[in-house]
């Protein structure tokens, strides 16, 4: 589900076909709202609104918290958009990122983008190093999988005949990775650095595959990681 640009226009707001979309639009435009406020805005019963709020909460698009109103009044539960909910609205982040990377490449040369990506991967690795000290390879892999999953990669660990694989079923940076393979190279280096073992990239979404697949080895990390083309 996504909220279209047309649905965001004032003319479309009153005729939105789905109540859930209208709730998301109101929360986007007005911020935190309670059930009573949503009921008034949408001219629906509070019971009906609660059903939609429950569904949106289960989908991870909204969340709630208890707030005390200004002045007098009892604390009330208000709803707001989560990061996933914000993602339902049009964004141009990939365009901005691509534009910046093209300028970095033009200003500082062909190797500049790779240096930036590798520095970012190194910083991420250092951030994780302390919390993973003493962990086994499997524990490190599980921690890494959880981190990627939380970042929108829909990552899973699979084992086939004793061989471990880290698989990303979604690439949240596909538009960028398709033009700048340095992003994938840096990700491979990050995985090797965190796991402290060799890793082989066997499939990349940016190269046209349905997913990204990393084969987890048992040897030392490579000094020149190779990507599946």
Describe it for me?
- With 229 residues, the chain is α+β, with helices and mostly antiparallel strands.
- The chain has two domains: 5-86, Arc Repressor Mutant, subunit A (Orthogonal Bundle); 101-216, no CATH class.
- The protein is 52% helix and 16% strand.
- The protein has helices at residues 5-8, 10-13, 19-30, 35-42, 46-58, 83-86, 93-108, 112-132, 137-153, 174-179, 182-195, and strands at 33-34, 62-67, 76-81, 155-160, 163-168, 199-203, 212-216.
- Strand 6 and strand 7 form a beta hairpin.
- Helix 4 (35-42) packs across helix 5 (46-58) and helix 8 (112-132) runs parallel beside helix 11.
- The longest helix has 21 residues, at 112-132.
- Residues 4-17 have low confidence and may be disordered.
- This is Winged helix-turn-helix transcriptional regulator.
- It holds the Pfam family HTH_24.
What fraction, in percent, of the residue positions are helical? Answer: 40-55%
Mean of pLDDT:
87
How many extended strands? 7
Determine the number of helices (DSSP H or I, runs of at least 4 residues).
11
Shape: elongated
Biggest sheet strand line-up:
4-5-7-6
Unreliable residue runs: 4-17
Number of domains: 2
The helix/strand class is alpha+beta
The span between the termini is 32 Å
Q: Gyration radius, to the nearest Å?
A: 22 Å
Query: Which strand-content bin applies to the residues?
Result: 15-25%
Largest beta-sheet characterization: 4 strands, antiparallel
Give the H and E element order.
Answer: HHHEHHEEHHHHEEHHEE
What features would you highlight for this structure?
229 residues; alpha+beta; Arc Repressor Mutant, subunit A; 52% helix; ArsR-like_HTH; WH_DNA-bd_sf
């Amino acid at each position: 589900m996504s909220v279209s640009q047309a649905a965001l226009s004032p003319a479309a707001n009153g005729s939105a076909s789905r109540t859930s979309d209208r709730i998301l639009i109101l929360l986007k435009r007005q911020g935190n709202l309670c059930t009573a406020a949503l009921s008034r805005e949408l001219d629906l019963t509070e019971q009906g609104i609660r059903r939609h709020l429950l569904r949106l909460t289960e989908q991870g698009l909204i969340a709630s918290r208890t707030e005390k109103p200004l002045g007098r009044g009892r604390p009330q539960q208000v709803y707001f958009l989560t990061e996933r909910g914000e993602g339902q609205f049009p964004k141009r982040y990939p365009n901005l990122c691509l534009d910046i990377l093209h300028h970095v490449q033009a200003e500082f040369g062909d190797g500049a983008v790779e240096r930036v990506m590798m520095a970012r991967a190194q910083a991420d690795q250092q951030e994780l190093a302390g919390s993973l000290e003493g962990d086994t390879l499997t524990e490190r892999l599980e921690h890494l999988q959880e981190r990627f999953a939380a970042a929108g990669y829909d990552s899973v660990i699979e084992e086939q005949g004793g061989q471990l694989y880290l698989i990303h079923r979604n690439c949240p940076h596909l538009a960028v990775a398709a033009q700048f393979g340095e992003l994938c190279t840096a990700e491979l280096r990050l995985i090797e650095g965190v796991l402290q073992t060799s890793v082989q990239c066997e499939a990349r979404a940016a190269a046209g595959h349905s997913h990204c697949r990393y084969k987890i080895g048992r040897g030392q990390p490579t000094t020149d990681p190779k990507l599946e083309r």
